[in-house]
Design goal:
The structure is a homodimer of 248-residue chains. Chain A starts with a strand and ends with a strand. Helices cover 23% and strands 30% of the residues of chain A. In chain A, helix 3 packs parallel to helix 5. The interface between A and B is medium-sized, with 22 and 22 residues.
Chain lengths: 248, 248
Amino acid sequence: MRNIKLVLEYDGAAYFGFQRQPSQPTIQAALEKALSRLLNHSTRITAASGRTDTGVHAAGQVVNFKTASSMEPDALRRGLNALLPRDIAVREAEDVPAAFHARFQARRKTYEYSIWNDPVRSPLHAARTYYVPFPLKVSKMRAAAKKLQGCHDFRSFCAADPSGKRRENTVRTLSRFEVRKQGSLIRILVEGDGFLYKMVRNLAGTLVEAGAGRLTLGELGGVLKVRDRRRAAKTAPAHALTLLRVDY
Amino acid sequence: MRNIKLVLEYDGAAYFGFQRQPSQPTIQAALEKALSRLLNHSTRITAASGRTDTGVHAAGQVVNFKTASSMEPDALRRGLNALLPRDIAVREAEDVPAAFHARFQARRKTYEYSIWNDPVRSPLHAARTYYVPFPLKVSKMRAAAKKLQGCHDFRSFCAADPSGKRRENTVRTLSRFEVRKQGSLIRILVEGDGFLYKMVRNLAGTLVEAGAGRLTLGELGGVLKVRDRRRAAKTAPAHALTLLRVDY
């Protein structure tokens, strides 16, 4: 059996997240359907970030799957792109060692969260940015990001996992947490060894509170320390979040 | 009566162009409906570029209209943005002299045409770029743009006007015609004193032919000279075209 790695790009607007669900369109279901048609056998994929929410996008989600097919990776990529809907594409396909596992071996993930910060909403940016009409101070957002960067227990930034798993280790390391501004567009870049359920959206919501002057650095330190989700800012909306890349 | 100028941004995907049409959604109809609700009188607007096609977007379309209302421009802008659908917004509103006419006084218009040029289509860019899978040489596109820049009779680049007007003056001056490349994204910027019906899309189609090596500079000179639409390249699709700004 071969083990194949795919890098995916998708616009998540029309999907109920990545993971297969009964009777709802998901990225996984669309991809497995295209794979099964192309390879003539049913196929199960494993994703680097399988728990992504409804509406989240990806420029570089990674999956792997097993097949006995002898189809060349390039033919596989082109065949899948012909079969997949317009809002999903395979950017890369390659053979990887049998031991490669898209989720367990992910060393680092990078997400981007985009905010449109202007007194006027932007129709041309509406689909993939969070619209914040009140002014945000980028310097304050950067100070909050700096405080959260590094290794912390991020329990306060983690939604209850719907799978019901308990006592998950909630310590994570954010190796990069940057805020970039180009005109009215604010882009938050966050890179880490792993992210808890809804953690990126909670971090984005926290930076918005900090930027609006409603959360001081001292208060933020308290939120981190208390390890209680109810103390952190509200979760920022999913449609502005993109999984940029996964490194192995 | 006051004369008010508005600068509009919109995502044209859901509209049958700008101009009011019986029983089809258009930008003009949506804006006039919102204006009439806000001002309590029926309102007719005049647009800088009223003939834009189905699916064309704008970052800076300009319109004007007359009203006896005493509402402040800023309140007008905010009121309209509350009433308008999510894919249309008013960026600016201001009082202008009675003689101001959005169409007749437009001195210069700037359009952007976006191309995704990559062996793999991009779901995250699909909505507003023209997907060209075969390689384009930007140097050849730039040479063609340079040849077309300046003052010419652009009859070969003008679709038959559906209004049936004849013997329109088809001489126009392109003051800027640039091709920019960032990774797989190619953006064509064209600025001129006016554009004929479908002219920007025909110019974009021509640069694609030139970039693909299917149209030499000599042939392009011949297309200009012959002043016959049937000789030029095919019209590039509308969904990748954005009216960036109008200067007065």
